[in-house]
Amino acid sequence: MQLPSSGWRRSAIHLALTAAALFGFVPVAAALDVTVTRLKTTEGDIVVCLWRSTDEGFPRCAEGRPFRKATAPASGARVSFPNLPAGQYAVSMFHDPKRTGKPETNLLGIPTSGIGIANNPRMSLTNRPTFEKGKVEIPEAKSIEIEAQYP
Fold first, then answer.
1. What are the beta bridge partners of residue 143?
2. What is the DSSP string of the chain?
3. pLDDT (tens digit, 9 = 90+) per residue, 36-90?
4. For an engineered disulfide with 86, which of 4, 28, 38, 45 has Cβ 3.0 to 4.6 Å away?
């Protein structure tokens, strides 16, 4: 018995992978670009965290366990997350003007540096940020803007 040629095998593999991608068996690579606006100063860093619904600690980048975390100079105020599996994510950020790795807070633990989440809901003690409020669907490449909020 003679084995099929390698060209035939490559074609069969290519066809199988294409069919798997079309029917959702292979995750599609996506990307997310986050731009932060309304910073009071361009000193320090911005820290942006990308969360899945199963991640613990949303929206607290410094204390939680986000899916991915990225830091960029506040003067640039832009962070990119390439090669993401397509899906639902929530995005949170904080401005770290002194580069301490955590948001500045007052004696009550309320952030005094800029904070924000995707979709820019107004946050307060009675309107706390949740995964649902900061959720974005990332089917492929996407850009969002988060406005830093200060107390």
1. 33
2. -PPPPHHHHHHHHHHHHHHHHHTTSSPPEEEEEEEEE--S---SEEEEEEE-TT-SSTT-TTTS--SEEEEEETTT-EEEEEEEESEEEEEEEEEETT--SS--B-TTS-B-S-EEETT-----SSS---TTTTEEEESSEEEEEEE-B--
3. 999 999 999 999 999 999 999 999 988 889 999 999 999 999 999 999 999 999 9
4. 28
In the prediction, which pLDDT does 17 show? 46
Burial (CB < 10 A; 0-12, 13-18, 19+), residue 50, is buried
Q: What is the pLDDT of residue 90?
A: 97
pTM for the full predicted model: 0.78
Cis bond leading into 66, ω under 30°? Answer: no
